[in-house]
Amino acid sequence: MHLRNFSISWNRLFEVQKGTFHKASDLENLDISNNKVLTIDVISNISQDLRKSSIKTLNFEKLQCTYGVSQILKINHIAYLKSTTLLELNLASNRINSLETGALAFLPKSLLVLNLADNVLSFGLYIIEFASLQSLEILNVSFQSTFHQNLMSGDVFEKCNDTRRNPNLEVELHEIGKHYNMTSYEDKLFPKMDNFLKGNFNYTVYLPPNLRKFYYHDNLYKMSIPKFSLGSQTKLTHVFAQQNIIYEVIGPVTGLESIKYIDFSGNFCGFISKLFLKSFSKLEYLNLSNNALGHVFENDKNGEILSAQRQLLTLDLSINRIYRFSEKVFLKNKYPLKDIEHILDRLEKTCSSYTVTTVVMISLIISAVTVTVSRIVYRYRWKLRYMYFVAKNKYKDGDNYQQLKTHSSYRFDAFISYADEDRRFVIKLVEKVEKEYNIKLCIHHRDFIPGTGIMDNITNAIHCSRRTVCVMTTHFLKSYWCMYELNMARMEAIYSRNGNNVLFLIVLDKNILKRIPLHLMDLVDSKSYMEYPGTEKDVALLAFISKLGETLKSKDNGI
């Protein structure tokens, strides 16, 4: 069989029996991913079949169901791969919690790429074994313990096959033991382990010697990076450690002098030691954005945190709540940053405080709006007041309010508005006119309803009267309530009497016309007033009373 590439992914496979790929000696690329019922136990059958093949790429991604129990990758799963020339192995999304001691050592020395992403890996001694992967260049352990939210549909209801066990595992383990001395291997890998367990932690952790890129991002591990040493990793250049929960970095971490690229963004980090970046002297790209490092850089008065990064080309410190930098951060450390002048100009504009300007502009806008609204309210103040009381009375009285607008339903022939200082004159005039012309007039000291608000009394008196008569004197113009009655009567004429003139003035002093406010001059210009003759015995007085009585008694709106 000369099959080189074979994919059976997304097929809902339940079993791949031993011997399925026994004759596929030319097979180079095999993909059985996303068959969630197979479980990782099937890897043993496949690896045993491919031990003498030309296999280069194996994709075992998601052979476990999403919400199943955690798994342990055992030696017998992958031991037969040791004799292959495998280049890339994908074990992502299999809920692998740990690796059996010695398992990584059985991976082939030719392996370049190992993907363990989207599992639930916990801390364990297997971490030390990564150093045995001599040719490994790319290691991916991202998305650990990811919460696969699916809104209670799909995978959450799937039937898992976690409890299945391969009956041949024990036999296979016995056969593997014939070829490899497991006891001697463990003794060689973990010498003097008793001292380690007693608390003597002066150990150097070694990574694969040819590792170039390390992916450790989007993990849900809450952790701190302490001081520790890595074996000299002369080829590791890229570290992707963004979107984790690394809340503090103490360091220093030695042995990573070759690193050129670090993405440490979005880690909720609130502290970075001044010693941490000392060993990263060849760093060209550093992303520390979206953390909480504001106070760290503000307190770095001498620019010590970034003092070793003399080859830095790109630095991202955005979204860190940094309010100020010490001048020495950039003056002392001559970074060859790209477009530094443009960056500084942009930072100056972005970071400038516009608080005062904002407060002033908001104050001006509020003031302008307030003045405009105030002017509008002041201009239409009488209309607003009138409409308020009309609505109030209409709501209170219902249909009775509508009846007040008809001529036959007015309670009074006229409402007399006057200043209290002119009461004596008004009372005599009212008594005389009422008696001689058989009309009913409303005056506040006699006809207002006790216990009712003065504004309600005024509005009701104007509504219930066919006309409103204002006795104009100096005292009238000085009285707030008299002017209130006058303006409310004008609003009544405009908005409730179809524009008919129901308001006129009695002028006791001719000079008072010169003092009438400008907005009332239309009453004077339209001759809507009568002049009092000034004597009680003159014929002119009799004519005045006669005309007043006839005007108030008539139902038309003339004077």
Keywords, separated by commas or semicolons:
31% helix; Rossmann fold; 5-stranded parallel β-sheet; 24 strands; Leucine-rich repeat, LRR (right-handed beta-alpha superhelix); alpha/beta; 559 residues; 3 domains; 11-stranded parallel β-sheet
Provide structural commentary.
The chain is of the alpha/beta class. The chain has 3 domains: 1-208, Leucine-rich repeat, LRR (right-handed beta-alpha superhelix), CATH 3.80.10; 212-216 and 232-350, Leucine-rich repeat, LRR (right-handed beta-alpha superhelix), CATH 3.80.10.10; 398-553, 3-Layer(aba) Sandwich (Rossmann fold), CATH 3.40.50.10140. It is 31% helix and 15% strand. The chain is built from 18 helices and 24 strands. The strands form 5 sheets. An 11-stranded parallel β-sheet has the order 1-2-3-5-7-8-10-13-16-18-19, with no helix packed on it. Strands 21-20-22-23-24 form a 5-stranded parallel β-sheet, sandwiched between helices. It has a 3-stranded parallel β-sheet with strand order 9-12-15, with no helix packed on it. Strand 18, helix 6 and strand 19 (314-316) form a beta-alpha-beta unit. The longest helix is centred in the middle third of the chain and has 25 residues, at 355-379. It is elongated and about 140 Å long.
